[in-house]
Design brief:
Blueprint (H helix, E strand, L loop, with lengths): L29 H14 L3 H14 L4 H13 L3 H14 L4 H13 L3 H14 L6 H13 L3 H14 L4 H13 L3 H14 L4 H13 L3 H14 L4 H14 L2 H14 L4 H13 L3 H14 L4 H13 L3 H14 L4 H13 L4 H14 L4 H13 L3 H14 L4 H13 L3 H13 L13 E3 L7 H7 L5 E11 L2 E4 L4 E6 L2 H13 L4 E3 L3 H5 L2 E4 L5 E7 L2 E28 L2 E27 L5 E7 L9
Helix pairs in contact: 1-2, 1-3, 2-3, 3-4, 4-5, 5-6, 5-7, 6-7, 7-8, 8-9, 9-10, 10-11, 11-12, 12-13, 13-14, 14-15, 15-16, 15-17, 16-17, 17-18, 18-19, 19-20, 20-21, 21-22, 21-23, 22-23, 23-24
Length: 626
């Protein structure tokens, strides 16, 4: 099954947001102290306490702009974007020139995909935050720089905010994500750990750190963090979903199914749920269940190419190749750059539809998308392997191994290609590598007969040009001499090949290697470029319309030779006095002996219009002259 069906649902990362306010703090009274406490709780990631305190502050003072802003920010962390927007609007009516509130409101617009409004609000926030003075101001400007894809400036703002407020856990979270985006996972992990040291109950961080562990392929730790996240929020669909993915990666398939069952109860129309649960069923070889889940995922989201790819894998297992091809085709149509779908469609072109050129085209498209896609190189190698162009096959297997040194099938295929050109030493090295990587080679037996081929690449264009139309002819006669008798090659296929470097290499290799246990052959492609004639009753044949050039003519003369044997039938013994006489009796019986003789020669046409006469025979046979 293609690796694509193992992809988990895109990890949804919860928002980690801190409230930054400047210019709206009132006198230090009791109401203000509640508001300040709400800010403190929010900055350390205690969102539930922050929400409760902000609500209390608003009850005491309906004109508390800061409290509305805090409450709005908490509501965003709960994905209640509509009510968050309402609270931001109230805050801005009370404090219309506060840059931090504009930054928060812009983020809320962004999460609602109101991109024009988001940009306008971010621009306003940036202009109002040109001279940050507090930790909160720097944090606010950092969020704007994040939006503007200015990671270095954002990181500098979050760092300054931490200098002014070392307990700003959400600043560590923001810096962690910048590190993660830069593929600096060790630094990102350290930042998450710093935030959790400030607030071990910062529940959303366990989810985020779990995602980072997943990306680091530390599935055990990721599952532990998702479990910790679920202790704070048992109904978190995303945490359940992602823990199910981790269980699947660990091979704990029953636990994964249990998590997916819970997700199905909480979110029954989640297409990704059925797509991923289908993956687990597939791994359990429960093809009917996998098919049903993939089909349901398609019904819920018919525009997602992955689901068609996965269902196509089920059809392939069922050997329903037309249905599999239709699904792979749909996946490619939905996503023309979908490398995995192109690979699978190419495999069907190659193996089932007997259209290898279309398969090759799909594999080459994959390499345009991803030059390091090992299996694309390997499958191109198989294409040339099937054509018995082994040097080209080996070249592509080399690239497959270079892209993925653990691609054990590439080693196995390359071993076969090496054997086909007679290089047993390199073949055995590759077989050992295949076994070292986990492959299994069973003991086998054979006749001991080997077929080997030239290493060189056959040049089809050169051969086609050499067989172009001319005005010369070659006429010949073929005979075989056996036991003093002459046998004409009657009704035999005679083949004429243009002489190419590949044919010359084959001929030299045959002279060197051919024997009772070794046959030397040309590739299927090379064999296509020839002209055939059928000899007459007296072994005569003609090739016409030839260009000047060098040719190789070959036939295999198979015939039956009639022979006679004296068959003993018994004897009679008589005695005349002291003399005993024995008479043996025989009769003559004719029988046939199958003979086969390969007749061939190189012939050169020197000029156009030349008529060349040749004899093909196993020795000097004067009566066989043309």
């Amino acid at each position: 099954m293609n690796a694509a069906i193992s992809n988990p649902k895109r990890i949804v990362r919860p928002l980690a947001i801190a409230l930054i306010m400047s210019g709206i703090l009132s006198s230090a009274n009791a109401q203000q102290r509640i508001t300040d406490q709400a800010i403190t709780q929010f900055m350390t990631g205690n969102f539930t306490k922050a929400q409760s305190l902000a609500t209390d502050a608003i009850e005491q003072d309906k004109n508390n702009a800061l409290a509305y802003a805090i409450l709005g920010r908490v509501l965003v962390t709960n994905n209640d974007l509509v009510n968050a927007q309402v609270n931001y609007d109230k805050a801005l009516r009370l404090s219309p020139n506060n840059g931090a509130v504009f930054a928060f409101k812009a983020a809320c617009y962004e999460y609602q995909e109101k991109n024009d409004l988001a940009k306008k609000a971010y621009d306003k926030a940036y202009s109002l935050l040109s001279s940050p003075a507090t930790s909160l101001d720097y944090y606010a400007r950092g969020t704007v720089n994040d939006y503007r894809k200015n990671a270095d400036a954002a990181f500098a703002d979050y760092t300054k905010a931490l200098e002014l407020n070392p307990q700003c856990a959400v600043c560590y979270v923001k810096r962690a994500r910048i590190y993660a985006d830069k593929q600096q996972s060790d630094a990102a992990l350290s930042e998450y750990n710093n935030a959790l040291r400030i607030n071990p109950d910062y529940s959303a961080l366990y989810f985020s750190r779990g995602t980072l562990y997943y990306e680091r392929r530390q599935y055990d730790k990721a599952a532990e963090d998702y479990t910790k996240s679920l202790q704070y929020k048992p109904g978190d669909v995303d945490a359940l979903f992602n823990r199910g993915v981790m269980y699947k990666m660990q091979g704990k398939l029953d636990l994964a199914l249990a998590d997916y069952a819970r997700v199905a109860q909480l979110s029954p129309n989640d297409a990704d749920l059925y797509g991923n649960r289908g993956n687990v069923y597939y791994l359990q070889n429960k093809m009917a269940e996998a098919y049903n889940d993939y089909s349901k995922a398609i019904r819920l989201n018919p525009k997602k190419a992955l689901y068609y790819l996965n269902r196509g894998s089920v059809y392939t297992r069922w050997e329903q190749y037309d249905s599999a091809f239709a699904d792979y085709n749909t996946a490619v149509n939905l996503n023309p750059g979908y490398a995995d779908a192109l690979i699978e469609r190419g495999n069907i072109y190659m193996n089932q539809k007997q259209q290898p050129e279309l398969g090759l085209a799909d594999y080459r498209r994959v390499l345009e998308i991803d030059p390091k896609y090992s299996n694309a190189w390997m499958n191109i190698g198989v294409y040339y392997h099937n054509k018995e162009s082994f040097s080209q096959a080996i070249e592509n297997y080399n690239k497959a191994i270079e892209a993925d040194p653990k691609n054990m099938l590439a080693y196995l295929n390359r071993a076969s290609a090496y054997e086909s050109i007679g290089n047993s030493k390199l073949a055995n090295q590759d077989k050992k590598k295949y076994v070292d990587l986990g492959g299994k080679l069973e003991p086998s037996g054979s006749s001991g007969y080997k077929e080997i081929y030239p290493e060189g690449v056959f040049d089809a264009k050169m051969a086609a040009d050499a067989l172009g139309r001319g005005t010369s002819s070659i006429a010949g006669r073929a005979c075989t001499k056996k036991d003093g008798l002459i046998f004409s090659a009657a009704g035999v296929k005679v083949r004429l090949f243009p002489v190419t470097p590949y044919l010359e290499e084959w001929h030299k290799l045959r002279d060197k290697k051919e024997g009772a246990h070794t046959g030397v052959f040309m590739s299927k492609e090379a064999n296509k470029y020839s002209i055939e004639a059928i000899s007459g009753a007296d072994g005569r044949f003609v090739f016409e319309g030839l260009k000047p050039g060098r040719y190789f003519i070959q036939l295999v003369h198979s015939f039956n030779q009639r022979k006679t044997a004296h068959i003993y039938t018994g004897s009679y013994t008589s005695q005349n006095g002291p003399v005993m006489t024995t008479t043996n009796y025989y009769y003559d019986q004719d029988y046939l002996v199958a003979r086969s003789q390969r007749l061939e020669r190189f012939v050169e046409i020197d000029k156009d219009g030349q008529f060349k006469k040749i004899t093909l025979a196993n020795g000097l046979i004067k009566s066989c002259d043309f």
